[in-house]
């Protein structure tokens, strides 16, 4: 019979490894996740950080990408976003896709199938979530490198994306929806957003595909686009449909806010014109 480490059997050795890993994960949870958290936040942490997610987060901590995880700043059906800091003390945003959500596959396949970058992918739920996170990170990098106003991508591992934090002191910047309530929006802001859509299309060769007032920050007089998981390359079979929807969403929002808006056809021509 094969023996391992000081005469352990294979089963005993594997149990020893499991216990050692469990100890490290428990220590990690205490030191990085439960520091100065209230009971409600502890419940959210327990819901999001299953064993596989803890391993992925632990990997990013060991790599030096994450130094500390702070409070939750955004919560959705598919993902949670946490404020954190890196080893240099700079603020970061940590987006964690939930590995157990049942609704993920149903709503997301149409944004992946037809994208040549993901031909032949495994569409089981766990693999799909990891692919989705990878897709968002790659889209974010393409947009950032093309000069689009987006959070700077920092790193990605399995179902976790780390990016630049947009805001101050662990408080995220307002979205356009929130900014409208706080200060009101203007035609200049509309033109800024449409300019970003054009840069995204021309230079990153992407269509956001879910653009609205809910996923655009307005910070330091700039519109900053985020949530790029569903973004598609412009030769995707549904790219034209998604682009039209993005434009109409933005025009409707500003029109309802009392801002005079250009014609849809003129905006579409502006974006498609090389």
Note down, in words, how this protein is organized.
The protein has 274 residues and is an alpha+beta fold. It folds into 2 domains: 3-168, Phosphorylase Kinase, domain 1 (2-Layer Sandwich), CATH 3.30.200.20; 173-272, Orthogonal Bundle (Transferase(Phosphotransferase), domain 1). It is built from 9 helices and 13 strands. It has helices spanning 10-33, 39-48, 51-62, 104-112, 125-145, 176-182, 187-202, 239-256, 264-272; strands at 3-4, 8-9, 68-75, 79-85, 91-97, 153-157, 160-164, 167-168, 171-172, 206-207, 216-219, 222-225, 232-233. A 5-stranded antiparallel β-sheet has the order 3-4-5-7-6, with helices on both faces. Helix 7 (187-202) packs parallel to helix 9. It is globular and about 75 Å long. The chain starts with a strand and ends with a helix. 33% of the residues are buried.
Gap between N and C termini: 70 Å
Q: C-alpha Rg, in Å?
A: 21 Å
Q: If helices are DSSP runs of H or I spanning 4 or more residues, what is the number of helices?
A: 9
| CATH H-tier superfamily of the largest domain | Phosphorylase Kinase, domain 1
Beta strands, count? 13
Could you write a compact summary of the structure shown?
It contains nine helices and 13 strands. With 274 residues, it is an alpha+beta fold.
What secondary-structure arrangement, pairings included, does this model have?
Layout: E1 3-4, E2 8-9, H1 10-33, H2 39-48, H3 51-62, E3 68-75, E4 79-85, E5 91-97, H4 104-112, H5 125-145, E6 153-157, E7 160-164, E8 167-168, E9 171-172, H6 176-182, H7 187-202, E10 206-207, E11 216-219, E12 222-225, E13 232-233, H8 239-256, H9 264-272
Antiparallel strand pairs: 1-2, 3-4, 4-5, 5-7, 6-7, 8-9, 10-13, 11-12
Helix pairs in contact: 4-5, 7-8, 7-9
């Amino acid at each position: 019979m094969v023996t391992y480490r000081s005469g352990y059997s294979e089963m005993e050795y594997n149990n020893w490894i499991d216990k050692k890993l469990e100890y490290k994960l428990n220590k990690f949870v205490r030191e990085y996740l439960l520091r100065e958290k209230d009971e409600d936040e502890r419940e959210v942490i327990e819901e999001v950080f299953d064993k596989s997610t803890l391993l992925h987060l632990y990997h990013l901590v060991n790599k030096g990408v994450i130094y500390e995880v702070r409070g939750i700043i955004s919560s959705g059906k598919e993902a949670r976003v946490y404020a954190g800091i890196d080893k240099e003390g700079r603020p970061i945003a940590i987006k964690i896709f939930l590995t157990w959500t049942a609704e993920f596959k149903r709503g997301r396949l149409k944004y992946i199938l037809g994208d040549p970058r993901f031909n032949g992918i495994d569409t089981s739920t766990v693999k799909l979530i990891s692919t989705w996170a990878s897709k968002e990170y790659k889209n974010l990098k393409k947009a950032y490198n093309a000069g689009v106003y987006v959070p700077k991508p920092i790193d990605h591992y399995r179902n976790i994306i780390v990016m630049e934090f947009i805001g101050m002191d662990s408080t995220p910047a307002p979205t356009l929806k929130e900014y409208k309530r706080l200060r009101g929006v203007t035609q200049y802001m509309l033109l800024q957003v449409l300019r970003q859509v054009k840069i995204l299309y021309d230079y990153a060769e992407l269509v956001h595909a879910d653009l609205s007032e809910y996923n655009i920050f307005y910070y330091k007089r700039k519109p900053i686009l985020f949530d790029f998981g569903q973004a598609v390359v412009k030769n995707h079979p549904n790219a034209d449909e998604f682009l039209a929807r993005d434009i109409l969403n933005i025009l409707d929002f500003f029109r309802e806010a009392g801002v005079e808006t250009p014609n849809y056809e003129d905006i579409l021509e502006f974006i498609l014109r090389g």
